[in-house]
Design goal:
This protein is mainly alpha-helical. Helices cover 82% and strands 0% of the residues. The radius of gyration is 15 Å and the shape is elongated. It is built from 2 helices and no strands.
């Protein structure tokens, strides 16, 4: 079950990267790298918020 979580994250990141236009044929390497960083920041922010929520709920209990 843990494997499917990582497969989902990889598929979701590729999809989000494509939505930002990272797979367009006419963009430069710099633009592609910048869009990849944005996708990484979105996923990192989600993980940080999830951990902060868990820490907050554990502290309340």
């Amino acid at each position: 079950m843990e494997l499917f979580k990582y497969v989902f994250i990889i598929i979701a990141s590729i999809t989000l990267f494509n939505i930002f236009g990272g797979l367009e044929p006419g963009i430069s390497f710099g633009e592609m790298a910048l869009k990849a960083v944005f996708v990484g920041l979105i996923f990192a922010a989600g993980l940080v918020l999830k951990e902060a929520k868990n820490a907050f709920l554990n502290k309340i209990s």
